[in-house]
Amino acid sequence: MTPLLMAVQESCARIGAITGKGLAAVIKENYSRKLLYMSVVLVVVANTINIGADLGAMAATTQLFFNLPFVALSIFYAVVIILLVIFVSYKTYAKILKWLAITLLAYPLTAFLTHQNWGQVFAHTFTTIPSMDFNTIYLFVGILGTTISPYLFFWDTSEQVEEEISKHMKKLGSIPEATRRYLHKLRIDNFVGMGLANVTAWFIVIACAATLNHSGITQINTAADAARALEPLVNGFPNAGLIAKLIFSVGIIGLGLLAVPVLAGSSSYAITEAIGWKEGLYRKFKRAIGFYVVIISATAVGLIINFLNINPIAALIFTAVFNGIASIPLLFMLIKVGNNRDIMGDYRNGRWSKLGIWLALIVMAGSVLMLFYSLLIHH
Predict the structure, then answer these.
(1) Which residue from 7, 174, 206, 290 has the fewest beta carbons nearer than 10 Å?
(2) pLDDT tens digit string along 48-69?
(3) CA distances from 217 to 24, 211, 228, 273 (A)
(4) CA–CA distance, 132 with 138 (Å, rounded to integer)
(5) pLDDT digit string, tens, across residues 116-171
(6) What is 2-378's CATH superfamily?
């Protein structure tokens, strides 16, 4: 996944940097309405399901500590996130999101506490071939979908524009030398960020294998199940159950606070750019009312999913799989935009970018076809 994600993320950021516009705005100006509406609908549906699943997981995790109603907790987190997005400035909020990313350290911490045979871990990372049954393929598509997700295409492109505006930069492309320097820094930022994201994903796999699977636990139905399964990890400490719950909760709640505003913001960028409304987190609420109303609405609709008595853990996995399916046409759209000389000029996709994005499309499409085929056999 690492080289595929790097290629996709770099292309998204470069489109935003060179055009000075979000992906939906670029599609609107250069392609048919059908392609625009298809792209927007896919990302909004995928993001809304994802928001609901994340809010549900956060609420279920909080219930490990407080005996409060699930629905009330879901509403609480939705309201907190909406208030932060509306009333905190972009620069401050960007810093909050960056600091929340520290919660990812919960997973390497868990992996190191379990005393791995690291030689064996590294060897199996590159040699293990899992059995290709329906459940394995379903999870594999989910892993791809939660990594190369629909929100990424719209959020990353638009956030690149936000960064340029926050730094009072002129539109790139008109000053070649400055543009080359900026794109070089952008690629380094992308390389480091996406590398860390996938190293973290690797640690999540190790942590789960060393705690859950090692204890014979392969079915997690609730947040409490996962926390109980982590108790052997801290058996040598007093209050083992509490420590296990804390480790688990930091990861789930911290990443939920990070993910939900990004997902809602991604949907809002897509919708408002397609309609032509003013958009951007750098704008005050009263100067981009439509943009913020869409964020509120996307979060609220996602919240409603939690009133349908759906298992939040199963919902998270289903959302990841749906993301994997929805990403396929969006990847094709990204290829069209990134390769278009009229849009990108001299900064269109190079040889390695083309190879990486096409490989991402082939891998995603191939995995989804395998999933549908295995589904037919499974039934």
Answers:
(1) 174
(2) 888 988 898 888 888 878 888 9
(3) 43, 8, 10, 45
(4) 10
(5) 889 999 998 888 887 788 888 998 999 999 888 888 888 888 888 877 776 666 55
(6) Amino acid/polyamine transporter I (1.20.1740.10)
